[in-house]
Amino acid sequence: MQPSAQFLHSPVAAPGERERILRCAAEAVAPGGHLLVVSHQSVPSWHPEMPEGLTEHPMNLTVQTPAENIAALRLADGEWETIRAETVVIEVTSPAGESGIREDHLLHHRRETGA
User: For 74, which of 25, 84, 96, 103 is 20 to 30 Å away at the CA?
Assistant: First the structure.
């Protein structure tokens, strides 16, 4: 199995539910398999600023940093290879037609095959 999670953000998720889903996805990866997680890292630049330290979008959507997603995965040391872990800047357009950017990030890990 090669699980992936793209933009797994929900305004109705129970506390910790997203992290449990990500851990289940990681646990399902067979040796030699890949896990891909893509997440919003910020709101669009044309969106009103969120107060410092606040990570919850006004629509109750939580945005995570790459470090927070890596911590949520709880990947065992020595069992995973990081292929990519980076922030990607995406060009976006507001509902009113205003151009802007949003930061997303992607995490690509491969489970080691072992000895």
Answer: 103
